[in-house]
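Incident log, entry 3
Record: alcohol dehydrogenase (386 residues)
Problem: checksum mismatch between cached and fresh output.
Input:
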Amino acid sequence: MASPALAPTPAPVTRDVRIEPPAVAMVWTGVGRSHETVAVPGVVLGEGETLVQIELATVCGSDVHTVRGDRAAPVPLVLGHEYVGRVTDVADGVRAVDGARVNIGDRVVWSIMASCRECDRCLRGLPHKCRSIQKYGHERIQPRWELTGGFSTHAHLRAGTAIVRVGESLPAEVLAPAACGSATAWSALARADEIVDVDDATVLVLGAGLIGLTVCAMARDRGAKVVVADPDPARRALAARFGAAQVADPTDPRALGAALAATGSAEYQVVVEASGAPRAVAAAVDAVGVGGVVLLVGSVFPTEPLALDPERLVRGLVTVRGVHNYTPRDLDGAIGYLRDHAAAHPFDELVSARYPLAQIDRALAAAEAGAAVRVAVDPRDARRRR
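Fresh output:
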């Protein structure tokens, strides 16, 4: 008996989308080299994909680490993974995190990654560690996918990207960092909540960068007592404006204890390490109280190994958790938080320098200098001048 003929596999649904004027992407080709300008006249939009015109991008610390050579990256690539933009084209059936259809004209923030949603990690609730993950601002550009990062006029979003519609009310300076820093801050507190109720906790935050300041505001708005430690006096002053009950200089060995005493609490139940400095990581483990949780967020670049006292962790019932990126729910939660609470804190002041897209190398140098919590890259000038 003859075997039945197999039905042919349907060809992927694709559509050519012309971009007029052509998109502009700033391409990084290696340490010590200036960015190169690449024009992209169009994309091939596949099933589940979206084309977004970028309104504003911000420079994350990991972008600085990459161009400085602190971490390996495939080249050529388009850096940038903090952004907000507007949908200019979209395949049928693309849905936002809340389940609503994504439409042309929607103002959106999208996740740092596209996940397959089918592998064992995705099915375990770890889409940010997908076996076939594609990360914006981290992937080598390739034919038919050149608009891979935020330092461009447009982004080509792959299927499996978490998209959140953000409305028109919040400034771009508040929204762009949500795609990395703000969502990671939300994720850190969500992971802490699985061990300790953050609402009633005394929280220590080490590092007053964007993640640390956002953790401070989020925890404070939930009722926690928050202490923020940073060696920079200007950052400590800023932390007070984000709701810190106490601030401390971590270079003073007595400062963390004195700040804790000033809160009236007996111990820190939650410690968030947001700087990545090895001394701060060691201080985080030393500072946490019995039954507490340490969230390591800042260690996203190679450093020397640290000595660890396992007895301290065992007898103290201490949980140490690594937090890297976030889930779609975390991104949605962070946007919801900003929508409801951003006006109560100076989030709009965190982006204190802005450069046109053509000056991306100057923007990265300014970010490395560290005076601004976030440096913005504005792509609109590139489209006006073409």
